[in-house]
Task: inverse folding
């Protein structure tokens, strides 16, 4: 799918389906996740940080698929571990979903991930 149609779909969505490959099973594992857009970049925040299963899976294989409103995009997730950059992602999440929900649902936001739609 072309990235501009995915971008259009993402602008209307509150969550996407993220499909990662299981690090032990090798099987595709889809799960709904919250996200924010920064220009052509999809930013993700693992709920339990480095303990999140999907985050552990992308360390083994960063190739993922995201789906939104019947649009899909395949790409490589890049991990974000720099504290300042992670804090920027957290601020974007607070702006989209509200600070109280981020505090409630993200107990350990110590990493983030980025997917460029290009």
Result:
């Amino acid at each position: 799918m072309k990235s501009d149609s995915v971008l259009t779909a993402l602008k209307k969505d509150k969550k996407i389906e993220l499909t990662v490959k299981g690090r032990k099973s090798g099987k595709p594992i889809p799960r709904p996740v919250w996200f924010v857009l920064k220009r052509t970049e999809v930013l993700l925040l693992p709920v339990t940080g480095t303990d999140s299963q999907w985050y552990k899976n992308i360390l083994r294989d960063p190739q993922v698929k995201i789906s939104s409103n019947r649009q899909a995009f395949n790409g490589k997730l890049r991990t974000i571990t720099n504290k300042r950059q992670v804090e920027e992602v957290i601020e974007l999440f607070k702006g989209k979903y509200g600070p109280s929900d981020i505090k409630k649902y993200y107990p350990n936001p110590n990493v983030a991930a980025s997917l460029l739609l290009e």
Summary: The CA atoms of residues 94 and 101 lie 8 Å apart. The longest helix spans residues 83-97. The chain has a mean pLDDT of 93.
